[in-house]
Structure formats: structure tokens, C-alpha cells
Amino acid sequence: xxxxxxxxxxxxxxxxxxxxxxGQAGDTSTGAAPSGSLEALWRAPGEDVAIVPGTSDYGPGRxxxxxxxxxxxxxxxxxxxxxxxxxxxxxxEPYAETVARLELIGVPGGDEADAQSIYVxxxxxxxxxxxxLLAEPVGGTPIQALGNVVVGKDAAAPGVGDRxxxxxxxxxxxxxGDLEALTTSRRPDRALYRSxxxxxxxxxxxxxxxxxxxxxxxxxxxxxxxxxxxxVRRKLERRGVRFVHVEIYEGNDPAKGxxxxxxxxxxxTEPFTFVVDRTGIVRSKLEGAFSARELERAVxxxxxxx
Length: 306
Hints:
Immunoglobulin-like; 7 helices; about 20% helix; four-stranded mixed beta sheet; alpha+beta; eight-stranded mixed beta sheet; Glutaredoxin; 12 strands; disordered N terminus
């Protein structure tokens, strides 16, 4: 995992730079920002930083966007909410405003990540292209975080409304009960390996499938994902929903590359978690880290459907 300072340096280089209030550093524009533009909001008093993205796979429509805000001293800014504006152009007027909420991404006693919380917003991006996003955490010393959301013609991974892939993912039965072949988790939950995705689709059971590698996670936030899935399983499995964890790498060895199940689901990054209804349709797509509250809400929405 890269330290926060390295992430900020990389992200600032890719976007517009980090600096003091007024958007001085990395700002290539000249003259005053157009009134009402996203740039004018960005130039408001306060520290200017770049968003550290937690999601990247977007298609047209409504997307779950997660991100961190880190100040110039490499300290996470974690306030309950952040105002978020979205525009098609930095000098254009925002066409939408929403609220990002800080979500706790770990569980007591579980794996820890460099960041314990992440901002999550639902953002409408109606067409392919690059969108500008400005986040301003509410309260405290003013700080504005600027970033891009790049929307493709289609998302790479299955999206909401797509049919789940009938992958014959590994199980306790297929590995002869070998948990080490199934998971890199320090606290393996055997219930996550009782059924394959293909078996659950054939049975018509609603389910959650999480593609993640606790040991080899490459981001600052994804270590606790499988722990979160396990906590929600213990709370909601009695309602008839099933839960599956699938590792990322062939033989759990990063040197061998990703396994065939990652390829079957066309996952561009990891982790990815999907909530699938009893008809086999993806109803929620959670890229990266998420809170137990987010996953529980997504599962309960599936259980309410006839």
C-alpha cells in the first residue's frame, strides 16, 4: 500500500495540482474564473487538494463514487458529509449537486486499512466522457478536493441490471475443505465458501459475491472488505440471502496474475462486490471499499423485491 503522501503526489500530478486557496498550484487558467463555474467554487477560500479516488469503473447513468480527501499534511479529512458538485467542464456551471457521506469501512476486530472511512456519493453521469467533481467537506477548516470521473461507453464490470456471470467459483467441496486454497483472510469465514456462484444462480437464491484479496489488497482501503461481508452475512443470512467470497489471484499468488473468475466477470480492478437478486440480476455494484451499512442496505433492498 502506498502512503497518503505518495497518493496525493500522484493524484495531484494527474489532475490539477494541490496548493493553497485560490487554486494557485497547478492552475493553468488565466484571468477570473467564470461566474457560477466549478472553477469559481474551487477558487473559494480554503486549501485546494486533489480527490484520492476509490472507484474508477463507470458507465452512463447513476454511479457510486467513493473517494478520500487528504490535506497537504497527508492527514485524512473525515467529516460526516461533504458537498459535491458535478460539471462537464471545469469552466462550466455544475449541472448537479449532491452530498457524499462518510462511511466506516472497517469492522471491530477485523483487518485495518490506512483509512478507516471513505466518502461515498451517488452521481448521475448521463453520457460517456470526462466529468469534473468538486468535494467540500462540511465543517472545520475549508478545503476543496477536485477530481475527474471518466465515464466509458459501458462499464467494464457487470452493472446494475446486468445478468450475473454463472462462474463455477471454488468451494469447500471443490477444494476438499482446504480453506487456505480459498482465502487469504486471517479469520476465514467457512460460510463464504459453501456454494459457487453458478450453484446459487441455479438454485434461485439471492446472494452477495465479493471478489477481494485480504492479504494482497493494493489500495489504502480494501483490506476490510471480506470482514464487512462476513459481518453482514451473520446478520442477514437467515433471511435467505447467501454470501460468497472469491479470491483474485491464481493460486492466491499475485505473481501468477488474476484467476479465471476475475476474467469471467471482466473486473478491471479489485475489490468488487455485487448483490444479485433471485432472478440472477445484479442489483447493486460496490467497487472498492464500503461500509457494513451500505451492504446491508443493498441486501435488504433485494430481499424486499418479490
